[in-house]
Amino acid sequence: MGISEIKTQFGLLATRRFLPLFLTQFLGAFNDNLFKNALVILITFRLSDVYGINARVLITAIAGLFILPFFLFSATAGQIADKYEKSFLIRIIKFVEIVLMVLTAAAFHYMSLPWLVILLFFMGAQSTFFGPLKFSILPQHLREEELVAGNGLVSAGTYIAILLGTMCGGLLVLHEMGRVYIGVGVVAVAVFGFIASLFIPKAQAFMPDMKIDWNIFRSTWNIIAYAASNGPVFHSVLGISWFWLIGSVFLSQFPTFSKEILGGNQEVSTFFLVVFSVGITIGAVLCNKLLRGKVSGRLIPVSGVGVTVAIAALYCLSFAVARKPYLMGIAEFLKEPVSWGIIASFLLLAVSGGIFSVPMYAIMQAGTPVEHRARVVACLNVTDSLGMVLAAVFVSLMLFFNVSVVNVFLAAGAANLVVMPFMCRLARCGQHDS
After folding, report:
1. Residues whose CB falls within 8 Å of the CB of residue 78, separated by 6 or more in sequence, listed in order
2. What angle do CA 135, 301, 315 make, to 5 degrees?
3. Cα separation of 168 and 172, whole Å?
4. For the chain, what is the HEC assignment?
């Protein structure tokens, strides 16, 4: 049973109806994170001195600037995706990415902070218009019994791309030829992404006569109201956003947790990022096997419990680490027996997160009428962004009041326990396999 489902899942990568879209999404996520992390590292170690600015304040600001287009343009992006043929729109967006990356390469070369910040905003806008397309086109190219498998692969690929892009951006940009490597890299990846998009099969437009509402506030309210009128779909949207909120809390605090709690250096922080990304990938791929390809919410409560158990274990194990008078590298960190418990806790957290999120994407797609699907995905973009902003506010307030990072994690775990009844309700209303 298990082997056949895994073969079926990875067999999608051999089909034209899935592979080009997968590659387009993978390369886009890689480029976003290559650009973002290279910019963060460049600001931290170079541009903050050149421009005489506070690096931490600017990094926080640009993180918000990247998310801002999701609030401003998601409703418009969803309407356009429902009105026009999707593969054509994807090609336009990927061509725009090439133009933006050529300008980005020039901005990196001249170390122009204003232009890099402006281009980061436009990259956020480009991602905003791509989001409704990638998730609404999947159900048009995949059968319902393939939705969990397809979403699992997209989620797995996205996290691998985020990991690789983040690591490459951080490792390359401060190299003697780093800005050249980054410039050439972002342009080349954008070109390959555009080439991949040329092979995406056509996806019919279901609302060609729809009149686009350009009032972003009214249209945003309308897409949220429509999604809220469909119980299982809206529960899935909120559940996915909760996953991104919890994930943001941990991803943003890996460096601080590694240094202040464990006494580890940047190698340990990067290692946790690798473990987290691998865990999400395992969970996303494993989900199809556990559900046998069926669109179902029955794993959501179990995986939600797994998240809280992992956080509780992480909290307890953190106090057992013997701090050194210096920051440990990854080799020395791994020699400590308790370190493997911490790694296992992070892995369980990430695997549970992958199993938690993937079915909800499938429930959202399968439960939304085809003529509204892209706009519901646009609603998800808005709530995801809101979730990440709330996570940033939550962490900032906790740290402002000198709450330890490990206690921030524990608070996130407690909050996850509080929403468990919601998860159980989502599981009940998300059953498509009865």
Report:
1. 132, 223, 374, 375, 376, 377, 378, 379, 381
2. 105
3. 6
4. CHHHHHHHHHHHHHCCCCHHHHHHHHHHHHHHHHHHHHHHHHHHHHHHHHHCCCHHHHHHHHHHHHHHHHHHHHHHHHHHHHHCCHHHHHHHHHHHHHHHHHHHHHHHHCCCHHHHHHHHHHHHHHHHHHHHHHHHHHHHHCCHHHHHHHHHHHHHHHHHHHHHHHHHHHHHCCCCCHHHHHHHHHHHHHHHHHHHHCCCCCCCCCCCCCCCCCCHHHHHHHHHHHHHCCHHHHHHHHHHHHHHHHHHHHHHHHHHHHHHHCCECHHHHHHHHHHHHHHHHHHHHHHHHHHCCCCCCCCHHHHHHHHHHHHHHHHHHHCCCCCCCCCECHHHHHCCHHHHHHHHHHHHHHHHHHHHHHHHHHHHHHHCCHHHHHHHHHHHHHHHHHHHHHHHHHHHHHHHCCCCHHHHHHHHHHHHHHCHHHHHHHHHHCCCCC
Domain 18-144+159-199 has CATH 1.20.1250: yes
- Residue 97 tokens read as 């990415």
- Model confidence pLDDT, tens digit, residues 320-377: 887 777 788 889 989 888 999 999 999 999 999 999 888 888 888 888 888 888 999 9
Tell me: the pLDDT tens digits for 72-94?
A: 999 999 999 999 999 999 999 99
- The CATH superfamily label for domain 226-428 reads MFS general substrate transporter like domains (1.20.1250.20)
Query: Which of 432, 284, 434, 293 is CA-nearest to residue 366?
Result: 432
Q: Residue ranges of the domains in the chain?
A: 18-144+159-199, 226-428
pTM of the model: 0.83
Convert the pLDDT of each residue in 223-253 to its tens digit.
999 999 988 889 889 989 998 899 888 887 8
